[in-house]
Write a structure and sequence with these properties.
Blueprint: H1 4-7, H2 15-34, H3 42-54, E1 57-58, H4 59-66, H5 70-82, E2 86-90, E3 98-102, H6 104-126, H7 130-151
Antiparallel strand pairs: 1-3, 2-3
Length: 152
C-alpha cells in the first residue's frame, strides 16, 4: 500500500516544473550512482551508507531505514558481509541481538565512491557560468528545504 502522501492528489503547481524536476533529479541520481565504479548494487550501497551513518545497527532498524522488508535486508547484509564490507557483532547487553557495522574495507569503498561522484559533479559544474553556479547554490538550498519538509 502506498504511503498517504503518495495517494493524495498533488496540489495545484506548475505541472511542467514538477515533471522537469522529477526527471532531472532522477537522471542526476542515476548518473551519480553509476560513478561508484564498484561491483555493488544500489541497494547494497544504500544500506552500507546507512550503516556507516548510524553506527552499529540492528537488521530491523536497518530494514526500517532502508524501507525494505526484513528478508530483503538480511540478503543485502549477507552479501555485504560476504564482500567484507560489514561485520556482525553481538549486542553486549543482549547476545540475541545482532548489529552490523561497516568494516575498514566498507568505509574505503564509500570514500572512493564519494570521491568519484564529487569529481563527476565538479567537472559538470566547472562548465557552468558563475551566474548558473549561483542559481544552483540557491536551488540546492531549496531542495534541502523540500527534504526537510518531508522529514517534518
Amino acid at each position: 500500500m502506498a504511503p498517504a502522501h503518495a495517494r493524495a492528489e498533488a496540489p495545484e503547481v506548475d505541472r511542467d516544473l514538477v515533471v522537469r524536476l522529477r526527471l532531472a533529479i532522477a537522471r542526476l541520481g542515476r548518473r551519480l550512482r553509476q560513478q561508484t565504479g564498484e561491483e555493488i548494487t544500489y541497494s547494497q550501497l544504500s544500506a552500507l551508507g546507512s550503516i556507516e551513518k548510524r553506527g552499529p545497527v540492528t537488521l530491523g532498524t536497518l530494514a526500517a531505514v532502508e524501507q525494505v522488508r526484513p528478508p530483503s535486508i538480511t540478503r543485502i547484509v549477507a552479501n555485504l558481509e560476504e564482500a567484507g564490507l560489514v561485520a556482525r557483532q553481538a549486542d553486549p547487553g543482549d547476545r540475541r541481538i545482532v548489529r552490523v557495522e561497516v568494516t575498514p574495507a566498507g568505509r574505503e569503498l564509500l570514500r572512493r565512491g564519494r570521491i568519484r561522484k564529487d569529481a563527476y559533479l565538479a567537472a559538470r559544474l566547472a562548465a557552468l557560468t558563475p551566474a548558473e553556479i549561483d542559481l544552483l547554490r540557491q536551488a540546492a538550498s531549496v531542495l534541502e528545504r523540500l527534504l526537510e519538509v518531508e522529514l517534518g
